[in-house]
Design a protein that fits this description.
The chain is an alpha/beta fold. The protein has a single domain, classed as 3-Layer(aba) Sandwich (Rossmann fold), CATH 3.40.50.150.
Length: 209
């Protein structure tokens, strides 16, 4: 997203609540990969989508510093739960410090480790899934989760434009190739319907039929 467009979008969007502002500021100031955070506009979109859906069970793959999980938690149904999985122990620890201060702290379950190993152990049916993890595994995550999602539930996949690299005639990097393959995989799947949103780095909204 061009920076001037992003700035204008932020200026004409609601303010994040204070804890989300703090997570965003902390990440931007202290994390060497701060660009990986969803950002204010996408965070608000995740929040409002969740609030519209009122999911009972949310799964997030890729916690990072906890920003997107806190956005999604705002829409949880009463007694709803959000599970979020983070591979990196340091990022998981950072996220947990913010979760502990959230009004949703008793609804947030942070799991540290390999999502491919953890997901099969979670005996849940997901109403809303957010994938923002290793790009080469997107198709594998998708295929693990779609069978465990009810009709009418939603899956969101982040970075589906991958810095614009998916638009190149010749795909070079492994991540760009993986994301392009994922986008094609979803497009060809008759179990779902999808729309690619040009928000930030691209967000695919997928509904199971």
């Amino acid at each position: 997203m061009p920076q001037d467009v992003e700035t204008y979008a932020v200026q004409h969007s609601s303010q994040l609540e204070p804890l989300l502002q703090e997570v965003l500021a902390y990440t931007e100031q202290h994390h060497p990969k701060a660009h990986m955070i969803s950002g204010a506009v996408q965070g608000l979109l995740l929040q409002q989508l969740s609030q519209m859906m009122r999911p009972k069970r949310i799964l997030e793959i890729g916690t990072f510093t906890g920003f997107s999980a806190l956005c999604l938690a705002a829409g949880l149904a009463t007694h709803g739960l959000l599970y979020t999985i983070e591979m990196r122990a340091e990022d998981a620890a950072t996220a947990q410090t913010f979760f502990d201060r959230s009004v949703y702290k008793h609804q947030l379950h942070l799991l540290q480790g390999d999502a491919k190993q953890i997901i099969p152990t979670l005996q849940e049916s997901w109403d809303l899934v957010f994938i923002d993890a290793d790009k080469v595994s997107y198709i594998e995550y998708y295929e693990m989760l779609i069978p465990r999602m009810a009709s009418g539930s939603f899956l969101l996949a982040d970075n589906v434009l991958f810095h614009g690299e998916v638009l190149q005639d010749e795909l070079k990097g492994k991540n760009a190739k993986a994301i392009a393959a994922f986008n094609a995989h979803v497009q060809a799947d008759d179990r779902t319907e999808n729309v690619l949103l040009t928000v930030r780095d691209g967000l695919m909204l997928i509904r199971k039929k």
